[in-house]
Amino acid sequence: MGSRSGGDGDNEVMHAGNGVLTLAAVPIGRVEDAPARLVTELESADVIAAEDTRRLRRLAATLQVRLAARVVSYYDVIEARRAAELVAELQAGQNVLVVTDAGMPGISDPGYRLVAAAAAAGIRVTAVPGPSAVTTALAVSGLPTDRFCFEGFPPRKPGERARRFAELAADTRTQVFFESPRRLAGTLQELERSHGADRAAVVCRELTKVHEEIRRGTLAELASWADPHNPAHPPGAHGSGGVRGEITLVVAGLDRAVAKAAARDAARAARRTARHAARHGDPAAEIAPGQPAPG
């Protein structure tokens, strides 16, 4: 119990007597992927904030860890309120460990608000690194990894989704999304319209689990595969077909040669427009770039 001192490399102003906030990655599938340090942190924490307390207790039992900490729930609906309570615990000298259902806290899971509040209060924040569906899916996708963006779950409102996908269609970075199996088919269809039917993509389902599946193809091919009416997906217990399990979607960025060609075409079109306007007496067209227009 009590605070842990930071190393000489700490560049934050820490307040003596505070506890330490630790974000701990937990397996995204196989329990044996758990970081070795996770066991130590579970055993030594004063307070454990878990997205699902029942899952935490099952994980601890599998890892043969006896939880001595006080366990509290920490999920989306109560995240803001609970963050304030946990900062108070930290300021009282309690060490707080945060875990989610799978992967790293704060990555499309609760954690960001607490980290921000703790940092603002001068509390040391550290992490137990480990499994992440984002980088795992990116690594196995076979798509470029030198530049990528993580988009989390796409917006649910149709207008917001359409705008987001339209922006990303011209992005040359590889794009990583989380998506629910129920919305996967619709998302792939929308991406097919915004990014083009031939854009390469990979659906990673149940990563590292027994029924892991890595499905590669074009957006058109994957949209057809994910269609709930596809006989490849038999109806489940509730009579509905479709893809099941945890989904991470990786989509290729716009080909860089194509992007450069499009930029050149746009520049040429802008020059033609400017010349045409100048010939027809538009005074604004004769203003040199960077010069102010007459008042």
Structure report:
- By secondary structure, the protein is α/β, with parallel strands linked by helices.
- The protein has 2 domains: 112 residues, Tetrapyrrole methylase, N-terminal domain (Cobalt-precorrin-4 Transmethylase, domain 1); 118 residues, 2-Layer Sandwich (Methyltransferase, Cobalt-precorrin-4 Transmethylase, Domain 2).
- The protein is built from 9 helices and 10 strands.
- The strands form 2 sheets. It has a 5-stranded parallel beta sheet, sandwiched between helices. A 5-stranded mixed beta sheet has the order 6-7-10-8-9.
- Strand 6, helix 6 and strand 7 form a beta-alpha-beta unit.
- Helix 3 packs parallel to helix 4.
- The longest helix has 24 residues.
- The relative contact order is 0.12.
Descriptive tags:
single chain; 295 residues; alpha/beta; Cobalt-precorrin-4 Transmethylase, domain 1; Methyltransferase, Cobalt-precorrin-4 Transmethylase, Domain 2; 2 domains; five-stranded parallel beta sheet; five-stranded mixed beta sheet; 9 helices; 37% helix
Largest sheet: 5 strands, parallel
Q: Output mean pLDDT.
A: 87
Q: Please name the fourth-level CATH homologous superfamily of the largest domain.
A: Tetrapyrrole methylase, C-terminal domain
Poorly predicted tracts of residues:
1-12, 285-290
> Total strand count, please?
10
Q: What general outline do the C-alpha atoms trace?
A: globular
What is this entry, summarized?
The chain has helices at residues 36-44, 53-62, 79-91, 112-120, 133-141, 158-169, 181-195, 219-226, 256-279; strands spanning 20-24, 47-50, 70-73, 96-99, 124-128, 148-152, 174-179, 200-205, 213-218, 247-251. It is 37% helix and 17% strand.
